[in-house]
Amino acid sequence: MTDLPPDLPRLRTLETWLRLTLDQVQRAIVAAETREAERQRGIDARPPAPDWLIEQGLNRDAPPVYVHVGGCHMAGKRSKGAPRGAAMRALTEGVAACPHCRPDSELGFLDG
To answer: pLDDT tens for residues 13-66?
Structure first.
């Protein structure tokens, strides 16, 4: 059978402990569900990724170094979202196209 104690006082003590433990577990479940709902709301409220990125140079006065397709895995932390026209303009002004995501091909940009 089970390893429960045979006498009533110890069974009542065990019952009390189980109720307290169950209450703690239920509170932990509610807290976890709340955190998950907040995380999901954050994901749902996140703005969409930009279609094009322009990666800036090492300092704020340096010219841009690359144009990327939005979501490119090679885009650095200094990349900012840009509209299509700004990405095209950057390419025509000599900013390099990322060799990995090839935004020049995506934009239909033909050099020269």
So the answer is: 999 999 999 999 999 999 999 999 999 999 999 988 899 999 998 887 889 999
Per the listing, tokens 């800036």 go with 56
Q: What are phi and psi of 69, to 5 degrees?
A: -75, 140
8 A C-beta contact, residue 49 and residue 69: no
What are the tokens at 62? 């340096």
C-alpha angle 67-74-112 in degrees, rounded to nearest 5? 30
Residues 101, 66 contacting (CB under 8 angstroms) = no
Alpha helix stretches (DSSP H) within 54-110: 84-92, 103-107
Residue 50 neighbours by CB under 8 Å, 6+ apart = 70, 81, 82
In the chain, which residue ranges form alpha helices assigned H by DSSP?
Answer: 8-45, 84-92, 103-107
Tokens of 76: 């650095």
DSSP state of 111: -
Whole-angstrom Cα Rg for the chain = 29
